[in-house]
């Protein structure tokens, strides 16, 4: 096969990184996770494209799925279904969907120059003729990291505290709904920091616009809606919060 033909048939770097196990650095991934909660700006200042983060967070989602399934699923098959939905749909599926939307919208609305290339190499922030570009791999990287507070507040803490926050008390509703506010607000903050770190994007502050809307909805929900009992992750898998008698 001619060399030029082989070059055109190469697997895009974005997919090669997903299965390059020898390059994984789980110590760095743990450092990223810790700082995403306490100092998220440092993460996007130093590190891009560490696939170990994706695998580690997928493992956490798997463990969360097993825990929710054991607690609320009626049988083993339902537990396995919850686990698969948590990892493949809630985590990877939603992250891919968000990354795709951000790739097309951010590059077009916030970019100062033309974006190009879905699957450029990790360090390729400059395209032909010196143009700075937004790569899909980076968008996926940001979406994956933004999911961490969602997992922390809604898949871990909510599971541990659900017996308390699911009670029919206003204080329980306050605490449960506040966790949703924090999780979603943190999601948009990390998304903003990820794209704000790119010097060729402008007006990235618009990515924080949903937060005031979330605050307004949170205030309204304190008197009208219980997020914990109506939006818990396991409910999106077709399982009730209480096991059938």
UniProtKB/TrEMBL annotation:
PANTHER family: PROTEIN UNC-50 HOMOLOG. GO terms for cellular component: Golgi membrane. The keyword Nucleus does not apply. The keyword Transmembrane helix applies. Keywords: Membrane, Transmembrane, Transmembrane helix. It is found in: Membrane. It comes from Friedmanniomyces endolithicus. Its main location: membrane. Belongs to the unc-50 family. This is UNC-50 family protein. InterPro entries: UNC-50. The chain crosses the membrane at residues 47-70, 82-106, 146-166, 178-195, 207-225. It holds the Pfam family UNC-50. It is a multi-pass membrane protein.
């Amino acid at each position: 096969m001619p060399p030029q033909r082989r070059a055109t048939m190469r697997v895009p770097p974005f997919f090669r990184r997903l299965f390059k196990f020898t390059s994984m650095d789980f110590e760095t991934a743990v450092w990223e996770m810790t700082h995403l909660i306490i100092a998220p700006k440092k993460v996007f200042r130093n590190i891009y494209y560490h696939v170990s983060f994706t695998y580690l967070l997928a493992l956490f989602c798997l463990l969360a799925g097993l825990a929710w399934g054991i607690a609320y699923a009626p049988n083993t098959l339902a537990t396995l279904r919850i686990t698969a939905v948590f990892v493949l749909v809630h985590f990877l599926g939603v992250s891919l969907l968000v990354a795709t939307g951000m790739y097309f919208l951010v590059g077009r609305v916030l970019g100062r120059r033309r974006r190009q290339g879905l699957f450029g190499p990790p360090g390729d922030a400059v395209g032909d003729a010196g143009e700075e570009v937004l790569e899909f791999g980076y968008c996926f990287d940001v979406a994956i990291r933004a999911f961490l507070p969602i997992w922390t507040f809604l898949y871990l803490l909510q599971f541990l505290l659900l017996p308390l926050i699911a009670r029919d008390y206003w204080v329980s509703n306050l605490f449960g709904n506040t966790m949703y506010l924090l999780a979603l607000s943190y999601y948009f903050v990390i998304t903003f920091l990820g794209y704000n770190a790119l010097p060729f994007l402008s007006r990235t502050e618009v990515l924080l616009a949903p937060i005031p809307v979330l605050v307004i909805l949170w205030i309204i929900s304190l008197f009208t809606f219980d997020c914990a009992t109506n939006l818990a992750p396991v409910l999106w898998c077709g399982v009730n919060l209480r096991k059938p008698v």
